[in-house]
Amino acid sequence: MPYHYPQNEASTGISVWVTSIVTRTMASLNQMHRKGPPKPKPKKRTPMDGRPQLKGVVLKTLIKKPKKPNSANRKCVRLRLSTGKEVTAYIPGEGHNLQEHSIVLVRGGEFQICQVSSLNVSEANMI
């Protein structure tokens, strides 16, 4: 669609701007030769890789400070998942009996107050 310049106000009585939709054009052969083929975007990888739950072994228990404006310290654990990845997960609820080498079941879920990870230790599933 070509770009149209405004028509003369005297001839039409009104000023009209017709703009075309700005679209990206195809790359020229020279540009394609210089840049090479387009690189595929890397797929987003989460610690769970699409699984609903994973087993993990506690490496260390932590106490994290939350972001402002919250102030209560949050109980977290450093885990080694069954996939071999090490992540930090939040422990929900009041009180826990987790210590080093405890085996837990973790589920996905965002916990944005602490910025620890997108994992929660399942409360009823502390194995």
TrEMBL record:
Its main location: mitochondrion. The keyword Cytoplasm does not apply. GO terms for molecular function: structural constituent of ribosome. It holds the Pfam family Ribosom_S12_S23. Residues 32-45 have a biased composition (Basic residues). InterPro entries: NA-bd_OB-fold, Ribosomal_uS12, Ribosomal_uS12_bac. One of its GO terms (cellular component) is mitochondrion. PANTHER family: 30S RIBOSOMAL PROTEIN S12 FAMILY MEMBER. This is Small ribosomal subunit protein uS12m.
